[in-house]
Amino acid sequence: MSKTQRLTPSILNRLIRQEKKKLNETLELGLKHPSEAPRATKEVKAEKLSGSLESHMNFYKACCIKEAAIKKQLKKIQEAKKVLKKKMIENLD
Q: How far apart are CA 50 and CA 52, in angstroms?
């Protein structure tokens, strides 16, 4: 006797996600069939990735610092807008 399994919506969604992932990988590598993907991928040593990871972390930190400065500027602009809005309303009365 063979064991059969019901095809539930969750199982169907999981199968669709897996196939979609395979197809996207195939398209990204410019291949004709998903079975060609393992041959087209390259293995990279950890030393090469560590430098890029470090540069990404440094850039992330710089972005955080810049974001904080921009937030301060935005806060000043918003306060100035409030003051100007109050003055405009007072002048209309």
A: 5
Helix (H) or strand (E) holding 44: none
Radius of gyration of the chain from its Cα atoms, rounded to whole angstroms: 28
- Collect all residues with Cβ–Cβ distance below 8 Å to 22 and sequence separation of at least 6: 34, 37
Residue of 15, 13, 16, 38 lying closest to 26 (CA atoms): 38
Quote the CA–CA distance of 9 and 55 in Å, as a whole number. Answer: 43
Residue pLDDT, tens place only, 11-43: 999 999 998 888 787 777 777 777 776 666 677
